[in-house]
Amino acid sequence: MDHKTFLKALSAEEKAALTETEDAAGLWHLAGHLGLILACGALIAVKVPLWWALLPVQGVLIVFLFTLEHECTHKTPFRSPALSDWVGRLCGLFLVLPFEWFRYFHLAHHRHTNIPGLDPELASEKPETVAQWLWHVSGLPYWAAGARLMAALVMGRAEGDYLPQSAKPRIVREARGMAVLYLGLAVTLIWSPLILWVWVVPVLIGQPPLRLYLLAEHGDCPRVADMFENTRTTFTNRIVRFLAWNMPYHAEHHVFPAVPFHRLPALHVRMREHLKVTAEGYGAFTRDYLDRRRGM
What are the structural domain ranges in the chain? Predict the structure, then answer.
């Protein structure tokens, strides 16, 4: 069974139940995630004993807001589309990832998942050697690409076949507004290093775990149209599922992206027997991924 056949087999009642959105689930989850960031940041700010050991924790908490920004592009984490948009913009501000641009980039990825020449995520190839893997996981290519993107958007160059002409002025305005905010935050470094320790250094440290996580979504999956084959679901623990807003259920998300994060476990139960590409945890995926590269 391919993913299209699976979707056709769902009744109208099942589809309606799975795609029902609500504000409460998203707001509670958001409160928990932001609460952890604020609590950890406060401990770093007052420099509790061994405060520096909290920097990678803070980094992981912040960079995994990417999974929420990603969810917001689908307008599913909350019933209110406007709330999803504003939360997405807030996440983009934390991550230096303009939300308006990312929305179109990500939706193009969903339309053409893992199809060379069409999926914009494949514009930069997955690492094919151990050395390339180390470079990729360092996060440095991500930050370099992000800096180039921000510079281009600020200068008014919003490029990409997936960007509607009508959206480009809005995309440029958002990037310029973000740049102004970043300049204002940079000025605060004159009298206080606070943002350096509660945000800048943590997100640099936290990027490698996110790179490892994201590589499992489609890495080494067949480049075909069937979402049961081109996307991986990774079985993991509750902590990772919480931080990633249930996106380890990634094949489920790609098969039926209208399903909000809090209903993905229910979709997984319905879909599990049809999954074709899975991993028993991120450690297992990484070992297999590197073993294949060593054998090349």
Answer: 3-294
